[in-house]
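Database export, one record per block. Field names are fixed; values are copied verbatim from the stored entry.
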Amino acid sequence: MGIDYGDIRIGVAVSDPMGMIARGLETIRWNGKDLDWALNRIADLVRQEQVLGMVIGIPRRTDGKIGESEIKARRFAELVAEKTGLEPVLRDERYTTVIASRVMRETGRKSKQRNQIIDQIAAEIILQEYLESRRQAEL
């Protein structure tokens, strides 16, 4: 499972059983305050999709310093681990939302459609890059 954490939306993606292809699964919308609801939804998806591993995008600043968004995402990863029993891999996701936005523009998605799925696509990119890095490491 790949997760793109945000203060309003959390994008979720999963891979096929062979770990080859990532696909967007869901955008969890939350109010930025009641994180328990979002964590419970992720735990439900982990069970439903029989998830064995997880990667969570960490938004690093371009200057390499730790920012507030990264601190929030790291705390979120700790809470996900507690809730699901899975220890997430943390991965730099600095430009995934920009890439996702570009992909949607190039495929002709309207602005309203983009806002509904951009976080799923970002999660898909995070997961796909992780899967590809694992395959490269195995070679």
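Remark 1: The two ends are 23 Å apart (CA to CA).
Remark 2: The first strand starts at residue 2 and ends at 4.
End of record.
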